[in-house]
Structure formats: C-alpha cells, structure tokens
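PROTEIN ENTRY
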Amino acid sequence: MAAERGARRLLSTSFFWLCCLLLLGRREPGAAAARSGSPPQSLGSSVRTFTPFYFLVEPVDTLSSRGSSVILNCSAYSEPSPKIEWKKDGTFLNLVSDDRRQLLPDGSLFITNVVHSKHNKPDEGYYQCVATVESLGTIVSRTAKLTVAGLPRFASQPEPSSVYAGNSVVLNCEVNADLVPFVRWEQNRQPLLLDDRVIKLPSGTLVISNATEGDGGLYRCMVESGGPPKYSDEAELKVLPDPEVTSNLVFLKQPSSLVRVIDQSAVLPCVASGLPTPTIRWMKNEEALDTESSERLVLLAGGSLEISDVTEDDAGTYFCIADNGNETIEAQAELTVQAQPEFLKQPTNIYAHESMDIIFECEVTGKPTPTVKWVKNGDMVIPSDYFKIVKEHNLQVLGLVKSDEGFYQCIAENDVGNAQAGAQLIILEHAPATTGPLPSAPRDVVASLVSTRFIKLTWRTPASDPHGDNLTYSVFYTKEGIARERVENTSRPGEMQVTIQNLMPATVYVFRVMAQNKHGSGESSAPLRVETQPEVQLPGPAPNIRAYATSPTSITVTWETPLSGNGEIQNYKLYYMEKGTDKEQDVDVSSHSHTINGLKKYTEYSFRVVAYNKHGPGVSTQDVAVRTLSDVPSAAPQNLSLEVRNSKSIMIHWQPPPPATQNGQVTGYKIRYRKASRKSDVTETLVTGTQLSQLIEGLDRGTEYNFRVAALTINGTGPATDWLSAETFESDLDETRVPDVPSSLHVRPLVTSIVVSWTPPENQNIVVRGYAIGYGIGSPHAQTIKVDYKQRYYTIENLDPSSHYVITLKAFNNVGEGIPLYESAVTRPHTVPDPTPMMPPVGVQASILSHDTIRITWADNSLPKHQKITDSRYYTVRWKTNIPANTKYKNANATTLSYLVTGLKANTLYEFSVMVTKGRRSSTWSMTAHGTTFELVPTSPPKDVTVVSKEGKPRTIIVNWQPPSEANGKITGYIIYYSTDVNAEIHDWVIEPVVGNRLTHQIQELTLDTPYYFKIQARNSKGMGPMSEAVQFRTPKASGSAGKGSRLPDLGSDYKPPMSGSNSPHGSPTSPLDSNMLLVIIVSVGVITIVVVVIIAVFCTRRTTSHQKKKRAACKSVNGSHKYKGNSKDVKPPDLWIHHERLELKPIDKSPDPNPIMTDTPIPRNSQDITPVDNSMDSNIHQRRNSYRGHESEDSMSTLAGRRGMRPKMMMPFDSQPPQPVISAHPIHSLDNPHHHFHSSSLASPARSHLYHPGSPWPIGTSMSLSDRANSTESVRNTPSTDTMPASSSQTCCTDHQDPEGATSSSYLASSQEEDSGQSLPTAHVRPSHPLKSFAVPAIPPPGPPSYDPALPSTPLLSQQALNHHIHSVKTASIGTLGRSRPPMPVVVPSAPEVQETTRMLEDSESSYEPDELTKEMAHLEGLMKDLNAITTA
C-alpha cells in the first residue's frame, strides 16, 4: 500500500514539475515579443484644461514731475500666483538692488523721487508689466508711457496791451506741452481767479472777455512743476473807456487744427475784437451748431468752442464766424478724432495635436489703423515659414510641435495707445488606441505628380487590411532637416491619395503616411524623399481684357499679348461661368478674341484668360463680367384670373412670367379682350410698369368676354396667355333694400384692444357700401366705427383691461343699415410691471458649517425693522466657484432670510449673492459674499503610481506618484505600503511614511528577484484618504537586470496571480534558442520518467487485488440504495489522490451515477437527504461569490491552513487521448480569512454555465493572461443555460475490466464519514481515465460519446453564479493536453456544509494521518526516487 502511494505521489510530482517547465518554455517567446514591440499605451489621459491667466490691472500712461513719486499699477490673476517683473524700454529692470524703484505686493511698480534732467532721464520711458507662471507660460501687459515734465521754458510771454471796456483781450503764455497743466496766472502778484468771463485755454493763454476797469493791472504767468516756480515777464493791461466809435473787426485768437482721442475734450479757441463788440457763432461742415441746447457743446468766454466727450462723429471742419453788424469775418480749423485700439475679436484658447496647423484670430479697430504684432510667452513672434501673419492680423502656426505650447498675445498699437489680448495653446497627446488590431503601414507610397508648389501622393492599402474601405489616412510631411512636421488628412474613408499644396520650389520634402481605423493609428510608412520642381518662367496675365454682348445669346471677349510672356505664347484658355453658379467652363483659343455662343438671354457671365507657353499655364487675368442682351419674353404671364365686378366691368389679375423667361426688364403688359361672339373684334390695353391688375370698364350687360395678357420688354412683346372667359352680370346689384346680416363675426380680445373679423352677407346681389361696428362695456351703442365694404377685419383700440365688451356688426348701403350681428368679449388683464425695481438684499454673509455646507444669511431693507416677511416675496441664492473660470452659477430659492447650501466641494472658495423677487418685480443681485469650505479627508487615491529600479542599486527602488485628484485640502504626507503578498491583510504590509508633499520615495534593502506590491494613500489635516491600486514590481536579479512594474487589474481582493500565461508580467532572461534546447531536454527526461514510473505503478497495483474486491463490494452496496448510510463502514474503498500543494494522500468514497444528466436532484451528503439551497435572494448569491487562486510562490504557500485550502489543484496535461474524466469533489472552507469563505451557492452548475465557448480565442496549449481571465469570467457567466451534456440512460460504475481508451470512472463525495475515520474531505479534480492517471476501478463506457464541442484549455474555473435555479455545488475541471483540447466534465456534488460542520471536517482532515504512517510514506517515496535516479543515471 505504501509503495502504491509512493508511486502515485511520484507520478503526480513528476508531471507537476514537467508542466511548470513546459509553461515556462512557452512563455519566453511571448515575453520577447512584448519587449521588442512598441511600448503599451496608457489607458487614457485626462484632458488638460485651460488655465485662467490674465491681467486684472494694466499700467496706463502717466505724467509726473521731477522729485515726485509715481505708481504704475499692475496685477495679474492665475493659480498659482504669477511672478511679476517689469520691463523699461524692452529691458528687464533689476529691482532687487534698486533703491528708488520697488515692486509692491500686488505687482505694481513704485518709483520714488523721479529723476529728470537735460542729460539724465533714467525714469522716463515705456514700461511693461510681465507676469510669469512656471511650467505654464508668460504674458505681457500693454505698454505705458511715463512722461516727466521738463524744465520750464516760455515760448511766448504776456505783452503790455490795452482793451476797450466790454471788449475781449488775450494774454499769451506758451510753455512746453508737458508743462501746460502746471501753468498758473497772477494779477498784481496775486493768484487770478478764473470764472465764466476769465478763462485759461489749454495752451496756457489767458482770455478776458467783456473787460471791466477791475481787469486792469500787472499780469504774469508762472509754472509750478515740483521745483521752485518760474515766472514770466510782467505785462500791464489797461482798460480804456468805450470811445463810441467803430473799429475794425479782427481775430485776437484763431482756431487751429486739433487732434483728440475719443472721450477727451477739445477746445477750439476763437477770440475777436472790434467795435461794436462782435458775437461769435460756429458751424461744422456748413451746418450751424446749436451751443445753447447741446450738453456737449459749450461756448466759452470770448467765443471759444469746447466739445466734451469727443466721438468720431465730431470730426470735421469747424468755422468760427465773428459778426458785429457792420462786418463778418470767419476762420476755420480741422478736428481730427483718433481712437485707441479695440478688439473686435480676441484670440481664443485652442486645443491641438502635434503636426496640426492652427490660426489665432485677432480683429482690431482704431484710428489710425493699428499695427498688430504677436507675442508668445513674452517673446516677439518673428514671421517665418511656420509662423505667418494671415489676413493682416491673424497668426497661423504650421506643423505644431510640443514647444509651441503656451500663451499667445495679440498686441495692437497706434499713435494713441496700445492694447493686448491673449489665448492659450495646449498640445494634446494623441488618444490611446483601443483594444483591437491596428493597421499596418500603407504600401507603395509614391509621388504620382510633382510640381513646383504641390505634390500628389498615392499609396496602396496596408497588408493588414487589403480592402481598406473604412481606413482614413494622415500624410505627415516636413522640409528635409526641419523638425517641424505638418499633417494633411484624407477627405473621406478609403481615399488613397492626397495633394500637398503651398510647397516651395526646388525643395526636398520628406513624406510618410499612416492609416487609422476605429482602434487608432497604425504603423507609419517608410519616409519618402521628394524634391519639388524648380520654378519656371510662365506667362503673365493678358492685359486689356474686355467683354461685350453681341446678341441675347453671345458675348465676345478680347485681350492682348501678356507683357511678360517669358517665351512664345502657344495658346490661350478662356474660362467663363454664369454668375451665381460654381461650374466654370473653358475653351482653347489661339487668337486674341473669341465669341461664345449659346448663352442664356439677359444673364450675367464672368470671363478670365490664361496664357500658355512651353512651361505651362501662366497667371490668370482678373474676372470681367458682362450681361447678354435682353430679348422679348419667352413665356406668358402666370396665374391669370378674372373677377366680375358688376354688369359693365371686369377686374383682371395676373403674375409676371418666370424670371428665367423674362429675358430682360419687363416694362409693361398688353391686355387683349373681345366678345366671345365676335372673335375678330379685339381691343388692346397697355399697362406700364409693374402693375399686375387692371379694371376693364364699359362692357355690355350679360355678355361673355375673352381676355389674354402678354408681357413687354424693350425688345417687344412676348407670348400671350390662353384666352380666359367671364360673363358680365345681367343687371347691377340691388340697392333698393338694406343688406342682409353678415354671415359670421369673430372677436379676439387683447389687453387694450379687440380684433374683429367677419365675412360678408351670403346674399351677394344686394349692394354693401360698408360695415358699421358698434362696441361698449355692457352695451354696443357706446361708440360706432364705419369701415369700407372691402375690409374684412378691424382692431378696436384704447379699451380698458379686464372689461366685458359687447360688439355689434351691421352691413349698410345707401338705403340703410342691415340686421346686426352680436358678439361679446372680455379684454385681458393688465400685465404692465411696476416700473420701480426692488432693492437688493444687503449684509450677505457666508457661515461655513462643514466641508460641504455653508449657511447664507442676509437682510432685506424693503422689509420692516423686525425683518418679518408677510407677503409672497422669495429670494434666489446663487453660488459658484471661480476655479475653473467658466463654472456656471447654481441657484436655489428661499422664503426666509437664510439658506443652507449643501453639496459643495471641500476646501473650495465659493462666492454667493442673493436677489429678491416679488410678483413680477425683481431686484439686482446683491454684493457677493465669499466662503471657503472646511477641509475633508482625501476622497481619491494618489495617481500615476510607478515603481522603478534605482540604477546601480538593484535592491533599491524608487516609488513615484502624483497627488490625488480630490485632495480636499493641503496634503501633509503619504504612506507607502508594500508587501510580497498582494492578498495579505493590510496590517501585515510594511509601511513607509513620507512627510510633506514629496512625490517620490526610495525603499532600500529589498530582496532580489522578488515580486513586490505597492499601495499609497495620502493624508491631510483631516485624516487618511483611500489607497491606490496595487502596483506590482519585481526586483532585478543579482546580475542587475531591471525589474518591471505593472498595475494589477481590479479582480477583487481575493484574486491571486495565475499560474501561467502568455503575457507574463515579468520577462524571461532565457533566450529563444536556450528555451528551445531546454524544452527538448525537459520533454526527454519527462518521457523517460513517465515510463519508469508507469512500470513501478503497474507492479505495485497488481499487489492490491484485495483493494479491487472492496471496491466491487462498495458498488454493489450502493446500487441497492441511493443514500449513503452514516454508520456504513464497509463502503469506504480508498482512492488515492495526490494533493499537489500539501503532498498528502487522500482517500475518497465512490458511488455510481444513477443519472448522468445534470438535474436539480439533490445529492445526499449524510444519512439524511440534503435540501438544495434556495437562491431566490440574489443578494445572498452575490455575497457568496468566491475566487480561486492559481499557482503561488513558496512564500505564499506558508500561510495558514485555511488559505492553503482555498487553492485549487493543478490541472495537468497528460496525453492526446480523448479523456473520460474521473471526478471527486471536496468543498473547502477557509478558517482564518473572512474574505475566503466558500459557499456552495458560489459555483454555477456546468449544466447551466460551461467553462468554454466554441469560438474561444485562446490557442491550444496556452493559458489566459490576467485580462483574458476577466473576459473568460464574463463569458462563462453569460453562457446560455441550455448547453447541457447528452448522457446515457444508465451507467455502471464498477467492473472487473478497464478499457484504457474510453473508460469512465466517476466518484462522488460521501459525506457520511466518521469523525475518527482518519479520512479528510477530498478535493474536486478531473483526471483522464488512462491506466497511469488513476488507480480507481474502471467503469463501462457510456453508450455514446459526448456531442458537444471540445473546450479549449483554460485556467482553473473562476467562481460563477447560477441564475434562477436551485443551486448545487458543482465543479468543472478542464484538462489542458499537449496535443488537443478536451471538454470539461460537469459533475454534480453536494452542497457545502455549514461553517461549523466544515470547521469540524477540516479539523478531522488535519489530523487524519499519524506521524508513523507519514514516515513510512516518505521512506517509500525516497526509495522510489533513488530507484528513479539509478535508472536515469544508467
């Protein structure tokens, strides 16, 4: 017995190691391919958002004086706060060592003690504020000019003068322009007070009008500009009495041309003197100006004109006219109005990919027209081949590269000032390819047409997609030696050609083509070098092109020989096109003129000519347009109709001919009519212009007439309509009685009006001269309105709202009014809102309550002092956060003076405002209140966790990560957890704390060639956030090979890495050649080992004939009853299975299969029948789902027994024979891990859920990767429940003979075992019924083989969930073979026992072997190993 156990254990162990080595050998080529291929793309990157970065305040032009202080304001907004610097005249200022200039906290520049002299002007100049944010970019402000007033110099000084009383006088004092604001006047050494009679002009000149004796004295002007005042010469002014004689009229001060900026004030001086005293009036552009009623035009003392808040409309020529009754004089001046640059369209933020072309649009206006320049990150953009200014102001960037990212500013400047506007450019990474095959490189890329400035490329479809109907293509091209690459995309799927325009002549370009399908971009074609043709000498445009119409259908075009023919002109091509269409036609011409016939009449055409020489087409002429001549209309008028008015007249109506048939301008219409009885007697009437109706009078009573109409042009009469007939009345309408009642009356009430409509009486033989409408509140007789008989509706105005009106309608003629028709209506209520708006709430306050709640309170001044709301008013609270800048407001209504805002983000600044609404009245929004929510623990884990090996130190690794997306506060540290067991309890992981906001950390002294798993969690002042996903990393081997890290897919906390797979997380250092040699050696040794072990096993098996007898006895006893007896000790034939992990010998009970078809019949597990578990509660089923683990390392095998029990057995490939599985079942329960509880309801019956699909994508002999396992789990879960196995009607489990080709032996779990029996619960396996694969008693084969498709090999079965059926614990084990795939054998096993029962079972299984028995088994095994070694050595 011991020898038999040893042989079985040796057999199983040999196949275990052989399978491991074979899987290792299979994995190497896949690993090598993964290394040699392109790196895997990330699963997706979040799109970066535009960062708000702009100036809040920009510096403005400033005038200062020596020794004073100046502040140039500047403030910029960004997150984080920008760094502010200043430029003066284009050079950065060093403010660190400057004792007079310093930077204020808000970014403004403060200059103390301004220095200015004739030869030293360090402070005067142009200043510019520069804001920079690291890793984001730079923006510059507008340029501000700082002007320092110079030393006073008098260009003219007051002179002694005299003035007659009542007249005007002018005293000059002209200084340099920047000192004019500092000019003051003194009279007799005392400050002169200015008023409406005494004024100072902007130039500093003093004007005194209507002089009096008190104006006499000594006058001088002074300049105060920071230093000691400087005085002019004194001049005496004498006031003379009125001589009462006339004197000539002269200008003391004439207006001069002036330039002003919009919104400034302009003063046009004009002072005249003479006797009698003159009066001054003004004119602009020959129109008199009304200075009395205008608010902006003011007449100053002496007659000067002041215009405040100048606009563009104020520009023009102004005339000053002085008149004293005896004579008139005038002077004129030009006022020019300028405007600072303003943006009509500002550049907008742009997302783009590399190689794309973009355009920043910038439209500006101003007077003079502004010049535009572009700045990128504070540096001037110099136009080049790739940076171009298009459409005067727009910036075009061709072939984007990553370094083009940043902030671009459009700076507009003219003589008046400058302005700037900016936008951000973000270069996006290309979207990662989705799962699926990508196209290979396009084939046979060639330049099918090469010209001087364009190249046409063609190619064939990729080899991976020969049809290529759904493929699009991108052509990347660049100048040779230039790093910038541009891209041109095909216009539609499947198109395999593209023309690249706007190239340079005689230049080498490099092209490559890439195909895209729905999964992403594929491989790029090999680079193709193409050189454009050199520029050749082509003809210029043909001069003096003329076109004129020669007939309604022909036009003649003439031209001359081009001035720059560049050789002999071979021929010309004349292009022409009908206006309004886009279809151009052409004709070859060898002379200098051509007539085109067959054109449309009276239609405009455009023409152009292109000359050809031996090099090709030249430059086209400009288009010339001409219209063909008109002609008579080619169609008759439309919609002719006749209306009989009375016994002697008929009204005719018509519409013009169709526009395309008018053939010119319709000048009138010709009407012909005749009596139907005398067709030869035709009368004609002409209607001129565009009239479309005519009343024909003087007809006979009761006579039929025929009418037709034709259209006229200047060329003649077109075709006429067909004859149309109508008959006049026998007699005129009756007017001997009043009209009948109108046939209908309808009213439509509005607020202050009612619309009345009606139809005439049904009896049309009575004359109706008009209609009388009566209306009033409650009575229709209050007012009456009469309308014409043609009218069919009327609007009654000026009514009262919400009033009941009665309306009556009567038709009348000369006899009287007819019978009335009544109707009533109620006007709508008045809806005009109260014009007075409500006052907004005041005292808005924000009280922070928690991380997501803020209480808003306010007061309402329109309420009484006790602030009690007694009416129906309500308040609207709105709030938003400024990050990002385009966040929209959220609103909520409240009926009290407070509101609780919930659902806010933690640690975020919000602004709140409130408005009040009462009925239709609303207030404006109140002033804003701000509040920042409290911090909260991070709600997302750190991102982008990566692990790399430190170069030169294989036992040291570096962990990198990014802060969590939702930090909810300032991050104060991180905790790194790492372990070699990804499923270990978190308190068993090693902890590495990281203080502060560092994003990298080193971990030293790790074990070489060991997989580690890393998790990171962040913390802030409120606590710890969630952990990141586990990242796997294998440390390098001692040789220094780098480890590789990978992120584990989210397969659940119970998931363990699979035993093998085609995509290993770690590469193999074994070369493909070595792996093949190793595979040959392993297979050879394995075959020899199997042969030896088989011989030993057969020898040992023949010694156990008594064991066979016990099995036959057990089968007989079981066939008599379908229930195992709890006290039946003779039904225990042992069957030995080798536990691959624990190397234990486990006997199992066997029982026949009374019904091989998978049904819901419960299998007994003890002396009583077991009731199936009810799965009506889906939640219970979900809670009982379980995951198996694959192969684990030796370290993880050292865990507790309960965890060890969770591992399924290895499924070994044996041979290529179609197997008939042998099954035993063993439900396993975990003792120490609450996450590893096994429930009988956690596995679906194979009758309902097979492990395989007929179209499974896994190749034979390979295992699933991690992602494939996840997919297989889904496929198993979704398999239809009808895929059951056909089975025989009966099956005998025990016989004396064994058929190695088709025998089947099924063993079921017997639960009625004694506690002291020394037997443990066996584990479910499927084994081929080969003589070497099982020592079980063979069975008679089933009547027919299974008809289902074979399953492909796969990893051990994952936990599945049965739906809508009673659940039995069913296990299906598939066997991976070396040669072919084999189907899984579904087996029904009993439901798992309860936890207490399972615990007892496992305790029994732990103590089922005595130490002496184990020692004997080990001794037998060692002996067999020695024999095997001796045979191998021999």
User: Anything to note?
Assistant: The radius of gyration is 52 Å. The longest strand covers residues 328-345. The longest helix spans residues 2-36.
